[in-house]
User: Fold this.
Amino acid sequence: MTPVQSQLWRLLKQPVWRCSHPERLPLAPAPAAEQAKVLLVLGQGKTLPARLESDLRLALGPDEARFLVMDETAWRAAGSPVAPVLLGLNLTAAVQGFAWHGSLPLTPAHKRQLWSRLCHLCSAP
Assistant:
């Protein structure tokens, strides 16, 4: 399908055919992006320490789509997307709707709170 045909297909609300090898069909309708299970929003200008990121990825499993890190400005520009587990570090605005928020560098108490919150949220049915 051409991009125009693909748009028309979506406009007519036709069922989207899912291909197990989308790389072979570059003009087919794109499958909807999966929502991240854990979304970590970082305050402006902050970077997530590599050690903390690797620990989080290891704890959440091998699926790359389960964990997403976004800058606060990009997150707000995207319309403040949500995830089942929404975490924030060094946020500059209100923290309503976040399951947990803290600031870098994390103290041992904050680390315990973060891991406890992740265990509680990710193991809940």
